[in-house]
Design brief:
Elements: E1 15-16, E2 21-22, H1 26-31, H2 33-45, H3 48-64, H4 66-71, H5 76-89, H6 105-109, H7 113-123, H8 129-136, H9 140-151, H10 161-172, H11 178-182, H12 190-215
Antiparallel strand pairs: 1-2
Length: 216
């Protein structure tokens, strides 16, 4: 069932009085459904660091809007849609992922974001073209056009659905642990490296001040 993602507080664990059912808490989401969504995001981006950065960014909004996200059902479809749309909205060139492990990885990595997203949603997630159009905010004709262009690109001609799924299984191994995107930066992800760098710059700037105080 699809949710609307309407804004709401992150407080969860309350019962839905209308349906008499218990809503999933945000913490339960991090420990459960997020694992599969990280695998999906890893296939979408093809790179561990890019996956961490993408999902971290989306989780900021997920936590803020949690009550609205779980109001109409399971959060997974809503969060997946948020991941897809955030991925498609980015303008910078995708980070190159692994090319070893399957012969299609290099060709998949060279695809434009829209074409790659269509293949992933079709052959990894198993969505219909109509559902993919809804995820990507486009028409069904655009989805089919993107799919045709993708499978006609160099390196993917003649590749079947089974070949693509096998390549996606390899990319799933790039998925980070939930703690890498829900906890404080550890210095290994893109955001983590930025945080560590900023901390180092702050310490360097503070050192002369500390020396002055000690000598004063």
């Amino acid at each position: 069932m699809r949710g609307t993602g309407r804004p709401g507080a992150a407080g969860a664990g309350e019962h839905d009085d209308r349906a008499g059912t218990r809503r999933l808490t945000y913490e339960e989401f991090l420990a459960g459904p997020l694992v599969e969504l990280l695998r999906f995001a890893a296939v979408l981006t093809g790179h561990r660091g890019a996956t961490e950065e993408l999902v971290r960014h989306v989780l900021l909004r997920v936590r803020r809007d949690w009550a609205g996200i779980v109001r109409d059902g399971a959060p997974e479809p809503v969060v997946r849609r948020m991941i897809v749309r955030e991925y498609l909205s980015r303008r910078r060139r995708p980070v190159a992922g692994p090319t070893e492990g399957h012969p299609l990885l290099g060709a998949l990595g060279a695809l434009p974001r829209g074409q790659r997203a269509v293949l992933v949603l079709r052959h990894h997630t198993g969505l219909s073209d109509a559902d993919i159009a809804d995820e990507m905010l486009c028409g069904v004709g655009v989805v089919r056009e993107q799919a045709e262009w993708a499978v006609d690109s160099p390196g993917l001609r003649g590749a079947g659905a089974g070949d693509l799924r096998a390549a996606f299984v390899v990319l799933e191994r790039q998925a980070p642990e939930p703690s890498a995107v829900s906890g404080p930066p550890d210095g290994r992800s893109v955001l983590g490296r930025r945080a560590v760098l900023l901390a180092a710059v702050g310490l360097a700037a503070a050192a002369p001040v500390a020396a002055g105080l000690d000598g004063g």
